[in-house]
Amino acid sequence: MHQFMHLTLRQLQIFDAVVRRRNFTRAADALHLTQPAVSMQMRQLEEQIGVPLFDYVGKQIQPTDAGRELHRHATLIGAKMRDLTSAMEEFRGVHRGELDLIVASTANYFMPKLIAAFCASHAKVQVRLQVSNQTHILESLSASNQDLAIMGQPPEDAELVARGFLDNPLMVIAPPAHPLARRRKIPLTELGCQPFITREPDSGTRHAAERHFSRHGVEFHSVMEMSSSEAIKQAVEAGLGLGVLSLHTLELELATRRLVTLRVESFPIVRQWFVVHRKGKRLSAVAQSFLAFLTKQARPLASPKQSPSHSGLQAFGLQQ
Q: Which keywords are on file for this protein (predicted)?
C-alpha cells in the first residue's frame, strides 16, 4: 500500500499518454516532453509498483495485464480530477475556467468562428481545441478526456448525449469546366457512371454519400481515397473526379469559382452537426455555457453560405 501513496497525477498522466499512443516518442510529443523524460518516468513508475507495466513488440509498446489494470484506474482518477476542477470552477462563475473541446476535422472550418464569438463574452475562458477523426473522438468521450465533442451523426450509444445544433449540407462538387456543371437539373442516376474522390472508409461524409446512393439504387464509384477535405478539393479541381463534401468546407473555392456545386436531384444531403458528451458526465459551468451558446448562436453565426453566382442553395430552401 505504501508505495502506491507516492504515485503522482503527473505520472499517471504520462502513463495514460504512453498507453494510448503505444510509443514513448509520440507520448512525449503530445505532452511537450522529451522522450528520455517520459522513459525515466515510466521506469520509476514500474519500480514504485514493483511489476512490469509494458511489453515491447518491435517499436510498439503494449500494456501488460497489470498495465491495463493500472490504466483503467488511472482513467477513473483522471475523470474524477476533471469533475473536481469543474466543481471548483462553478464557485468562480462561468466567465472563467477551461473548456476542452475535440472536433471532427470538417467542423474545424466553422468552429474557430464560434469559439471566437464565445470568447468575446467570456474573455477569461481558456479553450483547448483538438481536431481528430471520429474513432479518436469516441475514444476520448469514453475516457471523459474532453468536456464536449463536435461531430457528425454519432453512433446510437446509450452512454452518449448528443444534441443537433447546425445543419451540415453535403454537396456534389466538380471543376467549372466539367460537362455536368452547365446542367440545371441532373438525375442522380447519371452519377452512377462518374468517378468520385472520397475520404477514408470510416468517414461520416463518405458513409452518408454511399447510403444516399444506395437508397436510390445508384452505384457509388469511389476511385480514389484522400485523407482530408482539402486533398479532395484539389483532386476534384485537377479533374480526377467528382466529390461529395460539406458546404462548410467550400466557401473559398465557390467564391473564387475554383469549384462549383452540381444541381443533382435529391441533393444536398442535409445532415446535422452534434455537440456530444458522455452520459452522466458533470459538465462545468463553462461547458454548460458553451452548450447553451451553440444552441442559440451557431445557426446565425456559422450556417454555410454560397455565392449566388454558383448553383446555390436557394433551390433547396437552404439559402441564408
A: DNA-binding, Transcription, Transcription regulation
On whether the CB atoms of residues 198 and 226 are closer than 8 A, the answer is: yes
Buried b (16+ CB within 10 A) or exposed e, 293-306: bbeeebeebbbbbb
Q: What is the pLDDT of residues 146-190, one digit of tens each?
A: 889 999 888 887 789 999 999 999 999 999 999 999 999 999 999
Phi, psi angles (nearest 5°) of residue 216: -95, 10
Structural domains of the chain, ranges and CATH numbers in brackets? 2-75 (1.10.10.10), 81-166+272-302 (3.40.190.10), 169-271 (3.40.190.10)
DSSP 240: S
The continuous run of DSSP H or E covering 274 comes out as: strand 269-278
Considering the entire predicted model, what is its pTM?
A: 0.69
For residue 132, give the 3-state DSSP assignment.
strand
C-beta of residue 101 within 8 angstroms of C-beta of residue 268: no
List the one residue out of 310, 305, 219, 312 whose CA is nearest residue 259.
310
User: 11: closest CA among 25, 27, 26?
Assistant: 27
Burial class (CB in 10 A: 0-12, 13-18, 19+), 309: exposed
Separation between Cα atoms, residue 12 and residue 25, nearest integer Å: 17
pLDDT digits (tens, 9 = 90+) for 119-133: 998 888 889 999 988
Q: Determine contact, residues 311/263, Cβ cutoff 8 Å.
A: yes
Other C-beta atoms closer than 10 Å to the C-beta of 275 total 23
Give the pairing type, strands 221-225 and 124-132: unpaired
